[in-house]
Amino acid sequence: MKYDNIYHIKSAFYSYRQRELRFRYHLHRDRDRERETIAWCKVVVVVSLLLAWQETEMEKFGNLNTDIHFDVLSRLPTKNLAELMLVSKGWHQLITDLSFIKVQSQRIQLLSGFFFQQRFQWCREDIETINYIPVKWEGGELYKKVFDFLPQDVVLLASCNGLFCCRSCFPFEQPTLFVCNPLNKEWIKLDWAEPGKEKNIALAFDPFHDFSDNSTNFKLVRVSQSENEQEELYFSFDIYSSKTKRWKLSKEICWCNSNLYKNKGVFIGGILHWLTDADQILTFNVDNELAWLISAPLPAVEFNSAPESCIGESQGSLHYIMVSEEGLHVWFLEDYFDFTWSLKHCKTLAEMEQEHSQFFYNLERRVKLRRTVDDSPWMDPLAFKDGVLLLRVSNTIYLYHIERRKMDQVCDISKFGTYSLFCPTVLPYSMSLVPLLSKA
């Protein structure tokens, strides 16, 4: 047993040593991240030696206090913890302990990557392939089997703090909803009483309030659009609670003549947000069951060509990203009551082209050619999280680290399985150790 521990510790040490050397090689590209990662590598190696000593000397000195190990490991990114569970049985027991997960999950979990699932515009059948793009893109192949642990092929509906909501692929025999955690491969099955391909279901899960030693609680919010006798459109909200295991229709409605568009419900501070196709953002407070509309920072009519937008979260705030003939603009919402937006980032298309000339050519002219929203955009912001924008330009997908001005070319759209450009489902993913505890 002792030699197995030493083998795993050496493997972990060499793995982190190789990572340190690789980051040193790319020092000129990302000095701050390199320093942070090397620091964590050294911490992990030291703790590895401490735990190895503890396990081999336990017979002599008895059980040692693990508070230091608990505190240090709980500060590590979830991805590293998933790897370190293989070091020893002691580490696996500590990292999978519910009290440890509760503390670790309440620390800020940075973006791990994006899930990308294409859609057909006119065909009723769903595209089954789900692609994963890690935020630290180093080339290679896309991950396509992350959700293979589920009993059937699924379509992604929503993500929230490491959990996902999915539905059965069309066509199906028994319509089903799943809530799952792809890191620990745990899932819960829910009956889907009102199946529909275009049903919009969002997921609300806050690890600060919804996770305890006994249960992991979450809510699903199904948004439906209806029409009254005066042909006025409004949104209604059905809520599923994992505590009651029942759906209920909220008394709240929101009058709105526009349609939901992109981003399948962004959850921030207890509030779900949906982008619409008419310069508005639909919001719904999950606990208080209150809905309202927030105007976009700039209306589309201000531009000669049709701009394209998405919303996302960074540093606990709602962000609005727009690509237009004027360039790339990023705002964040300062105040929910006054609907105050502040401009955080602005870059002209000419500046983007100059900084990334190996990727782009004649951006401004091509973006200006889009006159109506029915035309496919040349430059399409697909999803945003923690300062990282997943961007499609023509037929190529890019990861754009906005504040660092770093652009990574991922691949051609055909690598995702089809050539379909129609409104793909793109969801950010932050890894989580949170268990779902039971399967139905």
Query: What's the count of strands?
Result: 23
The portion of residues forming beta strands comes to: 25-35%
Outline the biggest β-sheet.
8 strands, mixed
Structural class: alpha+beta
Number of helices: 9
Helicity, in percent?
10-25%
If you compute it from the alpha carbons, what radius of gyration comes out, rounded to the nearest whole angstrom?
A: 23 Å
Describe the strand arrangement of the main beta sheet, using strand numbers.
18-17-16-15-19-20-21-22
Task: List low-pLDDT spans.
Answer: 1-32, 57-65
Please, what is the average pLDDT? 83
Anisotropy-based shape: globular
Termini Cα gap: 37 Å
Written description of the protein model:
This protein is 22% helix and 34% strand. It is of the alpha+beta class and 440 residues long. Strand 21 (396-401) and strand 22 (406-412) form a beta hairpin. The radius of gyration is 23 Å and the shape is globular.
Short description:
With 440 residues, the protein is of the alpha+beta class. The chain has nine helices and 23 strands.
Q: Could you give the topology of this structure?
A:
Blueprint: H1 2-25, H2 31-56, H3 58-61, H4 67-73, H5 78-84, H6 89-95, H7 98-105, E1 113-117, E2 131-134, E3 154-160, E4 163-168, E5 176-181, E6 186-191, E7 200-204, E8 219-227, E9 233-241, E10 246-255, E11 266-268, E12 271-275, E13 280-285, E14 290-295, E15 308-314, E16 317-324, E17 327-335, E18 340-347, H8 349-355, H9 363-368, E19 379-385, E20 388-393, E21 396-401, E22 406-412, E23 425-429
Parallel strand pairs: 15-19
Antiparallel strand pairs: 1-2, 1-23, 3-4, 4-5, 5-6, 7-8, 8-9, 9-10, 11-12, 12-13, 13-14, 15-16, 16-17, 17-18, 19-20, 20-21, 21-22
